[in-house]
Design brief:
This protein is 56% helix and 3% strand. It is mostly helical and 148 residues long. The chain has a two-stranded antiparallel sheet.
């Protein structure tokens, strides 16, 4: 007999068949990395154009030199998981219910790392805080990066 939910509607409790969530992760992670890189490259196109087509493609692939953007990763991974769910006839909302907490944790870790390496939460004049105070303790934990 199906259990009733808090709102009184009846719902069948069912698990995904087989390795559905493993498949979702194996589809979502690589496509998220590719989408994040492509989004960044298209937003900063002039930095990645080379003299030849092959040099341009190689510049796109240099992910170890930095340059990813989370909106592109979310868009491409969500689209590919949606295609997978549609092909397997699985409710997309049920998959997203399982995945969304991982996205939240990933965003929290990403924002904390942005703060620690001073990518986002720092003004251009060297002040860390918006009112102009300089936090000297932060320089001990994360010394300024040496320009390349």
């Amino acid at each position: 007999m199906p259990r009733s939910t808090a709102c009184g509607a009846r719902r069948r409790i069912s698990a995904f068949q087989g390795d559905t969530l493993t498949d979702v992760v194996l589809i979502g992670l690589p496509t998220a990395i590719i989408g994040a890189r492509l989004y960044y490259v298209f937003c900063h196109w002039s930095n990645y154009v080379g003299d030849t087509v092959w040099q341009t493609l190689w510049n796109w692939c240099k992910i170890w030199e930095g340059g990813t953007a989370i909106p592109g990763g979310l868009l491409l991974a969500t689209f590919c998981v949606w295609l997978y769910a549609r092909k397997k006839k699985i409710p997309f909302g049920a998959i997203m219910d399982c995945v969304v907490l991982g996205l939240l944790i990933g965003q929290i870790i990403g924002r904390w790392s942005n703060f620690m390496n001073r990518e986002v939460h720092r003004r251009g004049d060297g002040h860390l805080l918006p009112h102009g105070a300089h936090d000297r303790r932060h320089d001990v934990l994360c010394p300024p990066a040496v320009p390349v």
